[in-house]
Write a structure and sequence with these properties.
2 copies of one chain form a homodimer. With 245 residues, chain A is mainly α. In chain A, 67% of the residues lie in helices and 0% in strands. The termini of chain A are far apart.
Chain lengths: 245, 245
């Protein structure tokens, strides 16, 4: 049996005509999912067939079907579940830095994921894909819930009221929309700029929510108290909200 | 032939067993769509069959098929197109009031639409519905584009740069998410509160975007200059962004 550290062949690799490599069951399953994710990253799911996955994995079509008897839909859902778990694992917040620096670090990891999965990420969040089902929507909702939970924990909130929940959910929706736009525009906007924009959005959206919600007001006050006193972005945000006669 | 002012029967109306009412072609088509929209408002599209539409319309199944040979999917898309056109027509901005009062008025009309279409609106925006296709997604995108265009025009912008466009698109995404949450929670939050929250979000999000974009800064300054000088919400927004030692 071959060494388990054999690299996963890239989608460009020529299929092996004879003597498919024999891999242990779990490893083969993971390899097929990894190959599928690479293909979904460059082409819409409609255009990726089981034959492509088999070819890119150096495996036969029947072998792919042995692992995913439900065909492409099952493979797609397994790949999505793998990607979703990986994304959720990136939501851990670094231990150092001010609250906004920590948010920025998590956003950097998020954008690295978006860049890696590209077309697959777009197809999934845009809707109307032929492989989209109530099940795939549920997987995406799981990720959103994990992001919500992590963000609230980061903000030191145990029980979030409806307005604070709406704020964080809305911010997550803004992140999703911004990353889709970023991909659409060929990643021309520097990702650091987009990340800073999203952090500023969080602060601003929290302030607008705090207008009518004491819990959000307390969270925002706690966050601002931990920022560097010379934070020029928050100061400029205030200035921009000052009407000029 | 009956009077053209005959009311569209409600979905609760008993089907007429004999002597289907004869309606002119275009009127019958509109009636079937109106009946379908009423049914989609209370049940997910999965659970609405052509039989239900026929019964509620006081028509036979073959008659419904005569108008919508593509079956339920075609009827769904026609209904969606009608609803989308109606929603887009509500984006007109009243001539009086400050810019934020005008935004509030448009949002009121938007929420009236959401309340009216309820389940149909949710199913559509949530994704993963069996009747969702690339075509239905395109119809929804058309509405979003119309909303973007209207909002930019309201702000007096002819050519929006990428950051201002991202701001308005993000705000529209926040509106969609907030209306879904509102429906989910049984409309317990007063709609006026949600509408004011969304207007405040716009001002705050614009300020955060203005930090790095002169065009948005100019738009925001223009908007604030037209607001009432005693606008306590903007003043309080500034105060909330002031860190307390």
């Amino acid at each position: 049996m071959e060494a388990s550290s054999a690299p996963v062949p890239s989608p460009q690799a020529r299929p092996r005509r004879a003597g498919y490599r024999r891999l242990p069951v779990e490893q083969r399953r993971e390899q097929l999912i990894a190959v599928a994710l690479e293909l979904f990253a460059t082409r819409p799911p409609e255009e990726v067939g089981l034959d492509d996955v088999a070819a890119a994995a150096g495996a036969s079509r029947p072998l792919v079907y042995r692992y995913f008897a439900g065909g492409k839909q099952q493979l797609y859902e397994a790949a999505l579940r793998t990607a979703a778990d990986e994304l959720s694992s990136r939501f851990t917040v670094p231990l150092t830095g001010t609250p906004t620096e920590q948010l920025a670090a998590v956003l950097d990891r998020y954008f690295a994921f978006v860049a890696e999965h590209d077309a697959g990420y777009s197809a999934l969040l845009r809707g109307g894909s032929v492989v989209e089902t109530a099940r795939t929507s549920a997987i995406v909702d799981d990720v959103r819930r994990a992001a919500l939970k992590r963000t609230l924990r980061h903000l030191g909130v145990r029980e979030a009221g409806p307005r604070l929940t709406l704020l964080v959910r809305s911010w997550i929706a803004v992140i999703e929309g911004a990353s889709l736009t970023w991909l659409d525009e060929g990643r021309t906007v520097p990702v650091e700029e987009l990340r800073d924009w999203l952090v500023d959005q969080f602060v601003a959206m929290a302030a607008a929510t705090a207008l009518g919600d004491p819990q959000t007001a307390a969270v925002l006050a706690g966050l601002l108290a931990l920022e560097r006193p010379d934070d020029s972005r928050v100061r400029r945000l205030r200035e921009l909200l000052t009407p000029r006669p």
